[in-house]
Design brief:
CATH class: Mainly Alpha
Helix content: 55-70%
Number of helices: 5
Low-confidence stretches: 116-123
Distance between the termini: 23 Å
Order of helices and strands: HHEHHEEH
Structural class: mainly alpha
Shape: globular
Strand order of the largest sheet: 1-3-2
Mean pLDDT: 85
CATH superfamily: Winged helix-like DNA-binding domain superfamily/Winged helix DNA-binding domain
Radius of gyration: 17 Å
Oligomer: single chain
CATH topology: Arc Repressor Mutant, subunit A
């Protein structure tokens, strides 16, 4: 049935995402959203609003992510020197190590994904 092809692809993608998150939990000790947050912060400090925008999430979900990463010692809050009314979130030294571990996980999990190139199966 041709009309269900796209829905079946979404099912397959969902299964792959569940498998990815399981691997992240086992190897890194973080869920998918926590890992996404570390990836964003690895590019540089962000205020909470900008991080929420990057992750496409809202209030309570972001608060849980920040609380978890903070309690694990992966992030810290610092003054935003451009606007002292705000604080920015940044990676600690331990958070930088975890971000490197995420990069290693990514390279083992997606060995064919090279920036600017398509996956072999998508040609």
């Amino acid at each position: 049935m041709q009309e269900l092809r796209d829905l079946c692809h979404v099912k397959d993608l969902t299964a792959a995402i569940v498998q990815l998150e399981s691997g992240l939990r086992k190897e890194i000790g973080l869920n998918l959203n926590q890992s996404f947050a570390l990836c964003c912060l690895a590019r540089g400090p962000l205020n909470a609003g900008s991080l929420a925008d990057e992750l496409r999430i809202h209030g309570a979900s972001l608060s849980r992510i920040i609380k978890t990463l903070y309690s694990k010692g992966y992030i810290y809050r610092d003054l935003n020197w451009g606007d002292s009314r705000q604080k920015v979130l940044a990676l600690t030294e331990e958070g930088q190590k975890v971000a490197l571990a995420l990069a290693g996980f990514e390279s083992r999990t997606f060995p064919l994904a090279v920036e600017g190139k398509e996956l072999a199966g998508n040609r």
